Amino acid sequence: MISAQAYGENGKMKEYHYTGPVEHKFSPYAFNGGTVLAVAGEDFAIVASDTRLSEGYSIHSRDSPKCYKLTDTTVLGCSGFHGDCLTLTKIIDARLKMYKHSNNKTMTSGAIAAMLSTILYGRRFFPYYVYNIIGGLDEEGRGAVYSFDPVGSYQRDTYKAGGSASAMLQPLLDNQIGFKNMENVEEVPLTLEKAVQLVKDVFISAAERDVYTGDALKICIITKEGIREEIVPLRKD
Amino acid sequence: MFHCLPRSSVCENDSPPLFSQWSAPFLRSFMPEDSTHLSGGGIHGEAFSTRLPGRGGLSPLEFYMPIAEYLTESPINFGQTSLRSAPTNLLNIDHLHPSLPSISLPPPTPFPISPSVPLPFTLSHGTTTLGFAFQGGVIAAADTRSSCSGLVACPASPKVLPIHSHLVGTTSGTSADCALWKRILARELRLYQLRHRRRLSTGGAAKLLSHMLHPFKGTELCVAATLCGWDGDDEKDEEPITDKYGNISTNQVTSSGSNNQSTSTAAAASQPLISFTTQQVVESRSRICGPRVIYVCSDGLRLKGELFSVGSGSPYAYSILDSSVYWGMSVQEATAVAREAVFRATYRDAYSGNNVDLYHVTAKGWRRRERENLKEEYYREKERERKRVAERKAEKNKEKFNV
């Protein structure tokens, strides 16, 4: 839904003081909330998102997950403006098909990431208001996470949180997965069970403190056997 | 970790109009039978679309909204030169692009000043990068923090991007712009290398980048890059350049700067008979080969120099560099100075931090130093300060005792 500028930045309502006549400019963007997270392990990748779709003070839907399966080894998580998310995923699906038909093989995660970067930059002067994170397996079967900004700058990471609660989740992931800012710590490689449990805990904390995150959590676990999905309920208030 | 730039497969030249449709479907519906798309005729960059909605199946929105042509133009297709066009006319894009006129007028200038669409988010800015040339090559260094108005979007972003084997570019400004334009530049340089069988010089690459960015002057594109490279007839320059203090042997390359006199007098002292002619030879060669540092900005500025620092932390870096950099320094000294300059800048500037990336470009190509985390350096600095304070106290006590 396209909203007028009464909502201000980030979907939060503006203060109510009378400051004089205000000209409302039409803004083609809206902020629909949601948080996405991706973690890469030795031979797995996890992409998780909450399923709440909100705008301002309202909740549009409690069942709108933000993970989109692209290929058997790649999942895209996108949060931000839902309209742009939908269009972007349609474009990516179409480009994947075109590649499959002209090259006779599916796109690898790295190639999808590079392609997404150019798609986003193609709209440099009227960007897609979407925060993307791609999670998948690379050609060697190792987990890969690629994080993007709305205009297409990207790089490969081990873990990344994006969306409304990203500022809260990212430091926690830095500490628990990256072992940053800790002294005398034994750096054990992350197992799948531990990673899934960590993702669940982290989203439960995010739902407590961020109003735009909640309702349910959908986890996509990508291994060489395929993509498995899990749904975990979160706070609904 | 930035992937190494694909050498030849970046350009998807086959059908640019098709892909530009797929990137921005809302603006025009792709009707294959509409020949105006493919021949690029008719519209000469008008701000308003005067095509009637009935013809060609255009969406009704186009009839009402002004279209600034640059909004639809994908920056990625820009800059591609067709083989048939004159090599100097960089702005003559291939005829298939629908939004550009078919005659060689300059592309329509975009609507100036404010962006047409106010963005609800900010893009990443803030950095410290530097590049300088010395007798042992070129050093390019940068921090790795990518911030987004207060939030550190990425603590480990690469800001020094290799463009080809002998050219490295530091990036400052919006990281998406820098990454993409470096990629476009790499593609163009590779095409030049394949067509002309030699590498384009650093000055040529800088000019190319500057001209490619020119149509976007006035828009919110923000790229401030320092191109650091080594020009040369590569095969002959295989032997190491100099020893520690810049004593250059006569058939090697020197700078075109003021240090020429001192080094050539050193050479003259050892070989008095031929010194005059070799000085001439050396000078003329140095104009073609050697280390180069050139600063290119999306405002259109293009400066050749020996030392540049760009970004929010650059004033702090300049203070270290101006006092310590001189032409004859050794490689170890140069890397130490570069690292110290970035470290001091990260200490004082809030938008710079995390790690230091260092690249060293010589006649043999670029080499990357290990990325160094500055957190350790801060603790070492604190430790040294603590020791100094303790020493001073001990001395004071001794004095008191003696007196």
Structure commentary:
The complex is a heterodimer of chains A (237) and B (403). Chain A is of the alpha+beta class and 237 residues long. In chain A, 27% of the residues lie in helices and 30% in strands. Chain A has helices at 82-103, 109-122, 166-176, 192-209, and strands at residues 35-40, 45-50, 53-55, 58-61, 67-71, 74-80, 130-137, 143-148, 154-157, 159-163, 216-223, 226-233. In chain A, strands 10-1-2-11-12 form a 5-stranded antiparallel β-sheet. Chain A has a 5-stranded antiparallel β-sheet with strand order 5-6-7-8-9, with helices on one face. In chain A, helix 3 (166-176) runs antiparallel to helix 4. The relative contact order of chain A is 0.19. Chain B contains 11 helices and 13 strands. Chain B has helices at 16-23, 35-39, 61-64, 69-72, 175-196, 202-213, 260-270, 275-288, 314-324, 331-348, 374-402, and strands at residues 129-134, 137-143, 146-148, 151-154, 160-164, 167-173, 223-231, 290-297, 302-305, 307-310, 355-362, 365-368, 372-373. With 403 residues, chain B is an alpha+beta fold. In chain B, strands 1, 2, 10, 11, 12 and 13 form a 6-stranded antiparallel β-sheet that branches. The A-B interface holds A 9-10, 25, 27-29, 31, 87, 91, 94-95, 110, 114, 117-127, 129, 147, 149-156, 167 and B 1-3, 20, 22-26, 70-71, 74-76, 115-121, 123-124, 148, 151, 153-154, 157-158, 174-180, 219-221.
